[in-house]
Amino acid sequence: MVAAVLAGLSLLSLLTCGYLAWGSRRGGAGEAPGNLLGEDPAAGAPRSQPHIIFILADDQGFRDVGYHGSEIRTPTLDKLAAEGVKLENYYVQPMCTPSRSQLITGKYQIHTGLQHSIIRPTQPNCLPLDNVTLPQKLKEVGYSTHMVGKWHLGFYRRECMPTQRGFDSFFGSLLGSGDYYTHFKCDSPGICGYDLYENDNAAWDHDNGIYSTQMYTQKVQQILASHNPRKPIFLYIAYQAVHSPLQAPGRYFEHYRSINNINRRRYAAMLACLDEAINNVTLALRKYGYYENSIIIYSSDNGGQPMAGGSNWPLRGSKGTYWEGGIRAVGFVHSPLLKNKGSVCKELVHITDWFPTLITLAEGQIDEDIQLDGYDVWETISEGRRSPRVDILHNIDPIYTKAKNGSWAAGYGIWNTAIQSAIRVNHWKLLTGNPGYSDWVPPQAFSNAGPNRWHNERVSWSAGKTVWLFNITADPYERVDLSARHPDVVKQLLRRLSQFNKTAVPVRYPPKDPRSNPKLNGGVWGPWFKEDEKKKKSDKSKGANKQKKKNKKKAN
Description:
With 556 residues, the protein is an alpha/beta fold. It is 24% helix and 15% strand. The strands form four sheets. A ten-stranded mixed β-sheet has the order 9-8-5-4-10-1-11-12-2-13, with helices on both faces. Strands 15-16-17-18 form a four-stranded antiparallel β-sheet, with helices on one face. A two-stranded parallel ribbon has the order 3-14.
């Protein structure tokens, strides 16, 4: 860790993450070499289909942005949000894979088979191939599609890779986490490998010890510099930050030495570098002629993890839970194309909504046979109209049944409350099963050198409780459980859960495959399942069966 921090003092880190004023025209830290004549590269360009830039942060807590009262400085995010539309009733999923799958398909987890947990590196699993993806739909209407950053939607076979799911190019990692400098990841002792890709091959040539936030930003600048801004582009930037391991270049600690909690201090430095990186992306959009016809969407993929420095205060819970702290996210839209700039949207918006919203903005078509769970919310965001969304299925996980006292009786014979599930309908939110870590973690919990839970607020409930009901509009911090007071509402929401569950597809969560070990694949995490091998095995078994039949006939 110390070596990684010292490495951040290198000249590269100083060059890549330095701030420049947005109006600056001189070359420098935030800009790649470009148009030296000062001409607008997009002059005379058609302005119908907008450039779409979707920036997804990793594990950023709800409080961890300047305009939510954080002590961590995020001037870029604050400025972009203030000049755009802040999404203050915006929901994602509590973990990495679920949020990414719903963004790219517009479907709830129960409709893709990814209801349970995340896709593990050693699992023969990926986003099902029969799901049409957002980049595929955008390519149909002429978009150039590029992904930079974290994939985490499976890679066990080549068909699962980003370049096979609609992206013209891919530069980034396939797994959920890894070292920011070496790009190595160990899933378990002895199961370790390299995880940096360019398209379908390991990017050994790019392994120069550059911090991933900076490296991804450089790649984005290169893509924008080489693309023709007269043609629409979809750029999906899925930064690794601020997910653990907690690593950052040394100079980003300067403003946060007063934070005693080491995890919070490292997290703050990581977020500071991420904020500067997004500033540099914005500079590149301006420099190369994209900005005036662009839509920038910023979102976190889930809530923060307090034990890893993140803060969701004043919301309850954390990453991995269905309390508001796990699923209510930082999000905003920044664009010259917005009608109500500088506003706040308090209408209900969910990560599945980006799929139909962006396809419609791109003048694409949504096939009638694609049953989406998302809604087109552009008029809600841009013009302040009412959201077409009135409910959100946060999830139904039939495998996670750790609530030992859950029962059909507790669910009024409508629902087995041992099952982990959560649903929002209008103002009401219902949770069943075991929703996960439920503390409120205030800012003072980070005041000490180590993790301190003495400052946390906890609520003790009667043993065996498996149903909770909250009015989220009146009680966004989930402090007053209303399930006993409003059994009629509980029953209504349980029936809605049951209706959703009837449309669910089987869960995809296969066991580990020993062939996934990077040692068997040149030391690299990557596709290991080969279709031809499976065919050969089936052909051999068929041949063997035929031979057995022949032998039986001879014996007879």
